């Protein structure tokens, strides 16, 4: 994440110097090597800064937060499992409106439970 912020600042700097994306890309590739943003991302950021964008940080996105396995959700899953330990991940997911992937992560990693055969 830090490397991409550095590169966005460099792109913004190049825009202020009136460099084109075609001129900016080789400079970034030389400076950042294998960690360099893709050409497409460089073009996108170059265009955004040329159109007046000032901030280099990502904008907030709508949707489910990336921390769906929060302490509150861990507690909700634990409380539900305390009522019936045989509940499936699918049923827990549907009941609590949490994705199956997150429920599985909570059950196996946060609660340290595993399936008994």
From TrEMBL:
InterPro entries according to UniProt: Transposase-MT_Hybrid
Entries under PANTHER family matching the protein: MARINER MOS1 TRANSPOSASE-LIKE PROTEIN (PTHR46060)
Name of the featured protein: Mos1 transposase HTH domain-containing protein
Taxonomy of the source species: Eukaryota, Metazoa, Ecdysozoa, Arthropoda, Hexapoda
